[in-house]
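Convert to structure. Protein one:
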Amino acid sequence: MATDIAEEIKNLDATLTGIETVLDLDGLRRRADELEREAADPELWSDQERAQSVTRRLSGVRGDLARVGGLRRRLDDLVTALDLGDEDLLAEASADLAPLGREIAALEVRTLLSGEYDERDAIVQLSAGAGGVDAADWTAMLLRMYLRWAERNGYTTEVFDTSEAEEAGLKSATFHVKAPYAYGTLRSEHGVHRLVRISPFDNQSRRQTSFAGIEITPVVDQSDDVDIDDKDLRIDIFRSSGPGGQGVNTTDSAVRITHLPTNIVVTCQNERSQLQNKAAAMIVLKGKLLERRRAEEAAEKQRLTGGPQDASFGSQIRSYVLHPYQMVKDLRTGHETGNTSAVLDGDIDDFIDAEIRWRRQADRD
């Protein structure tokens, strides 16, 4: 047993050493010092947006250092147990190898996020596709899935807009994931997601296939220089609908912004203040324009994120089957699971990790 444990520890040590090299721990420590000095500036909080950005980045850097340090200490403890040769310690070491290996593998995936905007926050927009009321219900289910995923990972989210469908579910929803590398982590979720189930809205209990489209865009940073001419915007103010309290629903506070040159339309209605809704809508619009520019500069041969998705048969990236069997399968990576209830409750990290590895390999090819 000791020989097998020694070999596994050797492999984990090699992987963790590679991670430490890629992350550049000395550079991370210097970055933490810089951000701490910036956070200590008494003038920082005069600019709330900048202050929140600094504190989020500092929290992320500190988290990375703590995570790597914790894994290294646990690995060193295993080496010590192996050197002592105590059977009880070896048994404990053997029990910790599997979870430690999973955590190191998850951190290794993070090191693969090296795209231009991967370290940014993410804006996620969901839209009901083909499938009628089932598609609207599916969109609401996906919103819950992603919000639960963020909650599981300790990420802060802010819902900017939800547009309710007439009978049930949502026509669309937009929310902000506030976490380091949220965009890089989620960007392969962009695409069409397909649900197959017995429709709860069909009085004959027939099987129904429905679709929802997901768009992922990065949040714009002050250094991005995304200039928008006011003359290129059409801003419509209207009364909010759906849940949100009396103050939200009885005032003309909802904002719809149309960017005329690109015909990109964004809406925000979940805040009480018209100014807050406008600010949130501008965050989404700038993110869409930034992603559009990134796609154009890279000359990518794909539909731009700001455009409509063909949320129907033949275009899905992942299928969620609840009947006649239980399975969620990603059609690009081949990753699948029969535990559909866990996935719909936000347990999608394995799918996301597989996507990141798949995307990195595709970029190399």
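Protein two, convert as well:
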Amino acid sequence: MTLYKKKQRIRRVQEMNDILQMLYPVAKIALNYSTDFECLVAVQLSAQCTDERVNRVTAKLFKKYKTINEYAEASISEMEQAVYQTGFYRNKAKNLIASAKKVRDEFNGELPRTLSEMTTIPGAARKTANVVLSTLFGVHEGIAVDTHVRRFVIRFDLSDYTDPVRIERDLMQIMPQELWWGFNHRLVNYGRDYCKAHKHDCTTHPLTEVYPKSNAIWPKAK
């Protein structure tokens, strides 16, 4: 990233954040949960699944499994059935049980509060870990780059890359740390309310004025 390009991106992402903060003054996760571990469960299940569907699934799941130990001792077949509707249910069920055992046995039943520790939990890669840490503990060690963030980063030329890890590094260079947490949640809301992934006319959308070229840039989903 050249110095000129970096300055342009710093200005652009600040303008985007100003608009997003006006549209969504309170940035919060759209997933429902009552305990710290339920937050981790919901975020894990949200991979390749809509928040609305996850909330429907967890409404039943959280009634069936109320403690970390109940998750840890759950039958894999019953867990698969419980999370089936979120997709990739075999892997998700396996990770939920394994993550419960990890938290119970190695972290004394409490979620860790560092990125390095959180990412040792099965099913909690950087994106999941960043979301959980920011949401629960106000710990902002990185930026959660999901499909929504990736799409808008490419459309608004905020990174030279399409890989989420490299996108995160670029964003961390051009955004103040205090804005990291809300960026993901606000873009998720913006994508839902104004600018969905399919091609359409974005001319009048609030963010388009920041970077008019974005109206013609449609990255492939990954």
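The longest helix spans residues 3-23. Residues 36-137 form a domain with the Endonuclease III; domain 1 fold (CATH 1.10.340.30).
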